[in-house]
Amino acid sequence: MLRVRNQLVKASGQCLSLARSSNSFKPVIARLQHTKTTETRPGIFSPFFSPTDEEQKEEKARRNYPRQTAYDTAKCKSPPTRNKMLVRDFIDDSLYNPNYGYFSKQAVIFSPETDFEFNNMSDHLEFMNILGQLYKDIEGEADEVDEVARQVWHTPTELFKPWYGYAIAKYLVSEYKLNLFPHKDLIIYEMGAGNGTLMMNILDYIQQNEPAVYKRTQYNIIEISGKLAERQSQRQDVKEAKDQHKCVKIINKSIFDWDIHVPDQCFFLGMEVIDNFAHDLIRYDLETLRPYQALVSTDAKGDYTEVYEPVGNDALISKYLAMRDQTRYRSPVLSRQLWLKCLQSLPLAPNMTSPEFIPTKLFMLLETLKTHFPQHRLVLSDFSELPDSVDGVDAPVVQTRYRGTMVPCSTYMVQPGWFDIFFPTNFELLRDLYLLVCRGSRAGNDKTVKVLTHREFCERYGDVERTTTKSGENPMLMYYENMKMILT
Known about the structure:
Elements: E1 3-4, E2 17-18, E3 28-31, H1 46-49, H2 53-62, H3 70-73, E4 83-86, H4 87-96, H5 102-105, E5 107-109, H6 124-143, E6 151-153, H7 156-159, H8 163-179, E7 186-191, H9 197-209, H10 211-214, E8 217-223, H11 226-234, E9 248-252, E10 266-271, E11 280-284, E12 291-298, E13 304-310, H12 315-326, H13 337-345, E14 356-358, H14 360-372, E15 376-383, E16 397-402, E17 405-409, E18 420-422, H15 427-439, E19 450-453, H16 454-461, H17 475-478, E20 483-487
Parallel strand pairs: 5-6, 7-8, 7-10, 8-9, 10-15
Antiparallel strand pairs: 1-13, 2-3, 3-13, 4-12, 11-12, 11-14, 12-13, 15-20, 16-17, 16-18, 19-20
């Protein structure tokens, strides 16, 4: 049985096989059982692969567990047991539950007190040494409080401030002046603004370099975290009253709960946010290629088990897969038909493909933009690939920090609240989905929707001389090579 205890543990073996269910939506428990039906068949290996009496009793109990969503568990003071949740709800609860979620108690965004003077550094190695010492100081303070301390993570916005924010501002202003100025306001919505650094850098740039545009600027932050929303408000307090930005409005709400219609032409920003959008998990039946969706079942002891049911009773998963089919995207797990057929003929072969994580919450964002921000221009940036991920297509990295050491995990089924779970984004697929959902056009029919690498964007809009070291190396261009942007 695929099971992960609620401590730092390794996942079950790589030889996981899944029992296929019937055509109903009755869940099938994932177990180390290499049969292709749910029938019990006598044979030489039966004593080794047949479920024990305890496992049979547990399976029967699991079938009666209530099905819950992240909204249902939001009021829980501790992670619930005796329930089952779609993978996206399990991950969403692990990250965002207001009482025990990772972002509610563990995450700290690294923000140096002073900006780095890259022009005075010898090379990028000196920058890394300075950065490493700052990290050591921060983590040392955290370790004095708890062995499993708050995780400190950084973004290009913080490391390369204000120059990265200025690059974003330069792009926004150039597009605004090209299409809207001076007849309409520059309206900006930023989703998940962290410490508020990007907001400050963008507005500082516009105030200093484009005063006429600044007079027509409105900046709105949509922030799910109450603590971060408070921190963003406090950023203004450190400035003199005459320098404070009066055009800022902070809305403490999840973008997925957004219910306000915004008819204005606006820019919608999401910088290093979508990697923490929860995904669903599917596998395909090797014989029929029918997709099955995964749920996480939690027993009375807090142990986790994956169970599977045919795709069909969750509207979001079904709609996403139907829309993805229109892009002519083909899952990598289905790309090797000959190998799949050979796999079926092997003794003790699995009856399902390897896992695939699908970005259903990101798809929800696109639908929210279409419905509530019909005239938006989108600017999204995040990881396009990640090392050390768990097994599967577009699989996440799951990690925590223990006694000053980053600990990667081999499963997403971990104790809620203690682990960061973040995903890569297939930006080319995202572009095609965006065209279908928000523009009503197929891939390639709209050249205004572009995917750029982090480096390409910074070279085009950034003041790269200000982040160049004496050796000629440029950390802002060299780092984050696994990040991309989508601009619409």
